């Protein structure tokens, strides 16, 4: 049914870069047989899923939305993908994304943008707009995204879907093509909080192949979402972040946010305002740390090891081949960030830029620590506006970066966050999102509160 739906709508939505019809059908048939024998591998056995094209999939193309990886077929699976396969989820295909996950609109994909199923003239968010649009358009019941600065949560907000960024180290990064190693996390993209929790239970947990993977037993997130769904918030302390509201926040988004705060109070939660003063510097710090890490990660695309190779006329040197390949293979946003990152890391400027940004990162973690000393969870709108028009912010990188204002602090501090659909804004009738943040390791809280808000 989902493959049929993809065939019917994906010409318009363009959520997928690659659909694996045969593979998905074969896996679904095996799952049917298993379940007929009473040997289902768990609740999600046989439920199809779409995977963001930044995760390595054995035998399936993995492009990261870039021309430089066109034609690359990984010889191995990311751990997240291995876990999906082991749990019996057929993989429908790979979803569109901003090139190397840099962007907030999916317009930086080298393969053309994804369109928001709510209004095809609008962006589906980014960088994981393909995963969110696939779920919103009923092309897939579940998807995997990755969130380095908001790429699961912001697309969730603007497409009316649920997106979760787990605690840093909670889900393995093995086989996830790194954008910024210290910020990247893979997580669920779904239509309900319970679906996200069930998927998180499948993909999460320790992986010896990822040196930053946390070694501990995690509670059942399915259980936490089930408890939350009763709607009782008695005894839960909720902090509203002062700095994530005000000028530049769309009135309709703020109005729906206020409705949900009222709902939490009615459900028995204690709601207080909490100031996180360093959050106003989060965006500036992020756009130094991320390009710094990204510029170093992307150095491996050297025309020798993977994907594209452009050989200029004559007798070119290895350096000529490398230069021509990168020139043709990387898009504008990727080049912009490589230049920014290389500059920020260069000797003489390192302390002034990268060093300062790391200090701000520490201050942001301290803001979270202080806040979580007073409240169980923090909330804010996920994104300042609803989905904007395709092309509207493409020539204005700063305007594009501002979309991530509310989502970036969680990545800098490594804490978990969920975006839940939060109703339609009055002025345009488009979806808005509410974000719930919890202390590191307390992902169960985002499921509990998220499910209560559904
Ligand atoms: N929009 C942010 C950026 O462009 C977030 C990216 C992400 O989370 N992958 O960096």
Automatic annotation (TrEMBL):
Is the keyword Ligase assigned to this protein? yes
Q: Name one GO cellular component term.
A: glutamyl-tRNA(Gln) amidotransferase complex
Name the reaction it catalyses: L-glutamyl-tRNA(Gln) + L-glutamine + ATP + H2O = L-glutaminyl-tRNA(Gln) + L-glutamate + ADP + phosphate + H(+)
Q: Name one GO biological process term.
A: translation
The task this protein performs is described as: Allows the formation of correctly charged Gln-tRNA(Gln) through the transamidation of misacylated Glu-tRNA(Gln) in organisms which lack glutaminyl-tRNA synthetase. The reaction takes place in the presence of glutamine and ATP through an activated gamma-phospho-Glu-tRNA(Gln).
Q: Which family does it belong to?
A: Belongs to the amidase family. GatA subfamily.
Q: What is this protein called?
A: Glutamyl-tRNA(Gln) amidotransferase subunit A
- Natural source organism: Nocardioides oleivorans
Phylogenetic classification of the source organism = Bacteria, Bacillati, Actinomycetota, Actinomycetes, Propionibacteriales
Gene that this polypeptide is encoded by:
gatA
């Amino acid at each position: 049914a989902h493959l049929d739906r993809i065939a019917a709508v994906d010409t318009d939505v363009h959520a997928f870069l690659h659909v694996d019809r045969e593979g998905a059908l074969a896996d679904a048939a095996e799952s049917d047989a298993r379940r007929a024998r009473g040997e289902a591998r768990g609740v999600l056995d046989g439920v199809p899923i779409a995977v963001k094209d930044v995760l390595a999939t054995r035998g399936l193309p993995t492009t990261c939305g870039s021309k430089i990886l066109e034609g690359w077929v990984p010889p191995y699976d990311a751990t997240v993908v291995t876990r999906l396969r082991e749990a019996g989820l057929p993989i429908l295909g790979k979803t569109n994304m901003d090139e190397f996950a840099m962007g907030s609109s999916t317009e930086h994909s080298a393969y053309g943008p994804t369109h928001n199923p709510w209004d095809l003239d609008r962006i589906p968010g980014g960088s994981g707009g393909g995963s969110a649009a696939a779920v919103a358009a009923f092309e897939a019941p579940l998807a995997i995204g990755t969130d380095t600065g908001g790429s699961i949560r912001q697309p969730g907000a603007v497409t009316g879907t649920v997106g979760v960024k787990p605690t840093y180290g909670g889900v393995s990064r093995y086989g996830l093509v790194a954008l910024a190693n210290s910020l990247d996390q893979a997580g669920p993209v779904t239509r309900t909080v319970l679906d996200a929790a069930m998927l998180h239970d499948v993909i999460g947990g320790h992986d010896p192949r990822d040196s930053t993977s946390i070694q501990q037993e995690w509670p059942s997130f399915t259980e936490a979402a089930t408890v939350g769904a009763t709607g009782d918030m008695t005894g839960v302390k909720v902090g509203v972040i002062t700095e994530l509201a005000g000028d530049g926040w769309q009135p309709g988004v703020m109005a729906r946010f206020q409705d949900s705060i009222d709902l939490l109070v009615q459900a028995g939660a204690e709601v207080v305002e909490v100031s996180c003063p360093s959050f106003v510097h989060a965006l500036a710090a992020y756009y130094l740390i991320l390009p710094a890490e990204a510029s170093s990660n992307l150095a491996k695309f050297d025309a020798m090891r993977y994907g594209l190779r452009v050989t200029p006329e004559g007798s070119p040197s290895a350096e000529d081949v490398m230069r021509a390949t990168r020139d043709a293979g990387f898009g504008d946003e990727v080049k912009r960030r490589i230049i920014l990152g290389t500059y920020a890391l260069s000797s003489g400027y390192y302390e002034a830029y990268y060093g300062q940004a790391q200090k701000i990162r520490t201050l942001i973690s301290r803001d979270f620590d202080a806040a979580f000393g007073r409240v169980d969870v923090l909330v804010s709108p996920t994104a300042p506006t609803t989905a904007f028009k395709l092309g509207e912010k493409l020539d204005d990188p700063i305007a594009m970066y501002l979309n991530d204002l509310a989502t970036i602090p969680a990545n800098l501090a490594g804490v978990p966050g969920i975006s839940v659909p939060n109703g339609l804004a009055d002025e345009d009738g488009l979806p808005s999102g509410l974000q719930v943040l919890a202390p590191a390791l307390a992902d169960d809280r985002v499921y509990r509160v998220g499910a209560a808000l559904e």
